[in-house]
């Protein structure tokens, strides 16, 4: 079976490539704007440096491909706030390019990486797929638009699509160095360096952190099933940012005062995902609890 991963040199994409390359022929398309070629250099995969904004390249590389995992994106809510035009070009137009190319060369199925940010700041928890979306950032708007395009291509053109709404993914290979890095690698990096984690707001905001191997599992199960539509991919556990900082410091063995700054525009207050639909459709069950996933993640950072 031949599989293509857009954004396959990135954090989630490279973890997905590791798993899929065990059994399948894998092609990776990545422009390395945020991904790292080193993430896949030891894998038996075909790597093509290129952008999802390049339709000619996509059609060429999609030929003969059975399944496409569309992970490529301009990541980060904050980055989309800083540059909404670029976020739209990559995350909306790029996704449309992927779907058109997949349709035109008869790909069997596209699995699209969406985001829990599409729910916005609704106080109703847990967040279910049948809730009305309320995106509060250009990133969330773009991800929701991608979902709508997936649905339309399924209904009009018969291209099977699945959109997976990721909830705060973390794990090995996540880059802490970017200004737009996610909270866990940033916290780990700072605590290891003897500096206090920076918390935006009071720290009582909550997230549903999902270990990357559970996200990989959900992607593979979505590919292997007949399911189409939108599905949450989460751990189904809620933790505050203050408690997260405490857990990280306890595992590393350092106790440092946190630094509190003003809340960031576009961030949601609380998040918790209902994963019953994904369980019913393709048997998704998260395998990693927070403590276990954090220990493995911190161990990986320590090796670096």
Give a description of the structure:
With 304 residues, this protein is α/β, with parallel strands linked by helices. The protein has a domain of 212 residues: 3-Layer(aba) Sandwich (Rossmann fold). It is built from 10 helices and 13 strands. The strands form 4 sheets. It has a 7-stranded parallel beta sheet with strand order 3-2-1-4-5-6-11, with helices on both faces. Helix 1 links the parallel strand 1 and strand 2. The longest helix is centred in the N-terminal third of the chain and has 21 residues. It is globular and about 55 Å long. The mean pLDDT is 96.
Rg, rounded, reads: 18 Å
Structural class assignment: alpha/beta
Q: Averaged pLDDT, please?
A: 96
CATH class of the domain at 2-167 and 211-236 and 268-287: Alpha Beta
Largest sheet: 7 strands, parallel
Contiguous helical run count: 10
At the fourth level of CATH, the homologous superfamily of the domain at 2-167 and 211-236 and 268-287 is NAD(P)-binding Rossmann-like Domain
Strand element count: 13
Provide the helix percentage.
Answer: 25-40%
Shape: globular
Enumerate the spans where pLDDT stays under 50 for 5 or more consecutive residues: none
Roughly how many Å apart are the termini? 33 Å
**Side-by-side strand order of the widest sheet:** 3-2-1-4-5-6-11
Helix-strand sequence: EHEEHEHHEHEEHEEEHEEHEHH
CATH architecture of the domain at 2-167 and 211-236 and 268-287: 3-Layer(aba) Sandwich
| CATH topology-level fold name of the domain at 2-167 and 211-236 and 268-287 | Rossmann fold
State which percent range the strand residues make up: 15-25%
């Amino acid at each position: 079976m031949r599989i293509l991963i857009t954004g396959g040199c990135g954090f989630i994409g490279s973890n997905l490539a590791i798993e899929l390359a065990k059994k399948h022929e894998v092609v990776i398309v990545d422009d390395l704007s945020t991904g790292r070629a080193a993430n896949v250099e030891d894998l038996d995969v075909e790597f093509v440096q290129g952008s999802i904004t390049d339709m000619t390249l996509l059609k060429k590389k999609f030929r003969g491909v059975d399944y496409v995992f569309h992970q490529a994106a301009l990541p980060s809510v904050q980055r989309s706030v800083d540059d909404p035009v670029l976020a739209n070009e990559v995350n909306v137009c790029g996704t449309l390019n992927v779907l058109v190319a997949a349709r035109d060369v008869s790909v069997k199925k596209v699995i699209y990486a969406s985001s829990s940010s599409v729910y916005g700041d609704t106080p109703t928890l847990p967040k279910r797929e049948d809730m009305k979306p309320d995106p509060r950032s250009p990133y969330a708007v773009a991800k929701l638009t991608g979902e709508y395009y997936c649905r339309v291509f399924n209904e009009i053109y018969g291209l099977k699509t699945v959109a997976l709404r990721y909830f705060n993914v973390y794990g090995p290979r996540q880059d802490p160095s970017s200004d737009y890095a996610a909270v866990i690698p940033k916290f780990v990096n700072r605590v290891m360096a003897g500096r206090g984690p920076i918390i935006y707001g009071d720290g009582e905001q909550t997230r549903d952190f999902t270990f990357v191997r559970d996200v990989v599992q959900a992607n593979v199960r979505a590919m292997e099933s007949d399911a189409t539509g939108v599905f949450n991919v989460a751990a189904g556990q809620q933790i505050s940012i203050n408690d997260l900082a405490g857990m990280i410091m306890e595992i590393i063995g350092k106790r440092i005062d946190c630094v509190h700054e003003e809340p960031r525009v576009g961030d949601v207050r609380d998040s918790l995902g209902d994963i019953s639909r994904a369980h019913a459709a393709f048997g998704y069950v998260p395998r990693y609890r927070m403590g276990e996933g954090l220990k493995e993640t911190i161990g990986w950072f320590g090796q670096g």
